[in-house]
Amino acid sequence: MSRTVPQRGACSRRNGNLTLGEVTETVRPVRMTEQSIAAYDVSQRVKTYDADMELMHPNRSKMVQVAIEVLPFPRTAALRAIDLGIGTGYFTKQFLDHFPNSRVLGIDGAQAMVELAKARLTSLASRVQFVIGDFRNLQQLAPGADMADVVFSAYALHHLGRTDKERVLREVVELLVPGGWFINADLIVADSPELESRLQELRVAGIVERAGGSDNRFADLTSTRQFLADLERKEADNPLTLAEDLALLQSSGLKNVSAFWLEHRELVSGGQK
Ligand SMILES: C[S@@+](CC[C@H](N)C(=O)[O-])C[C@H]1O[C@@H](n2cnc3c(N)ncnc32)[C@H](O)[C@@H]1O
After folding, report:
1. Helix (H) or strand (E) run with residue 6 in it
2. Ligand 1 centroid vs 155 CA: distance in angstroms?
């Protein structure tokens, strides 16, 4: 069962292309027991989400900037894009600002995050179609081969297990037009436990320093480590190593696969169909 809620407009297919009207939200059934979605469909988590991202991922803005810069399209292009795990709309907003004639299909399983995305996107929302659903069912959520010029994602795909990620990437490649791009800003894990442990130390120390004693959760190294461990368990994190990530992009059928930016446990990678 699915419910489509058109608000002042609708999306339609014309000449085989997905054309988006004004704000449209499609709700697909989601198994809310799915951990990586349920973890974000909590009002308390959503309220502090963007402020927490600034504390926990200070490279977020840089990563999205690099991801957008890599895309070899003129700024005037009318691109059809998909955001996997749109969350509060951070990446989509930067994308729409950069490509003012483009449109985004924003998929997320957490209604609460999407509500915040709508608030963030305000006037830009007329260029976004929101779909509430599990992106592991991508073909059902965004049907139609060769319909997207760009598929992008930030901090979302590391929630997938390896088999799911392989399948989603294959579906992404099917959705892309020839020459289209997939670009992902996400977390990775180090190659060895020793290196992972060192990078985690740096990560935790950075968060404590940025929080500057103003947040009990990040008061010291121990409480921060505990907070992150609880969060990662709740969200079912499953990051790949750099080599695994790039190999998966290659095996999905993308060319020009590269790591465009990398620092410690954060990576911007992608490739072209
Ligand atoms: C860490 S947030 C990232 C949000 C946004 N892309 C950003 O950069 O801030 C991860 C998002 O992915 C969504 N998500 C996780 N697993 C999902 C799945 N299988 N299907 C749909 N959405 C999912 C969550 O609901 C959440 O909004």
Report:
1. strand 3-6
2. 7
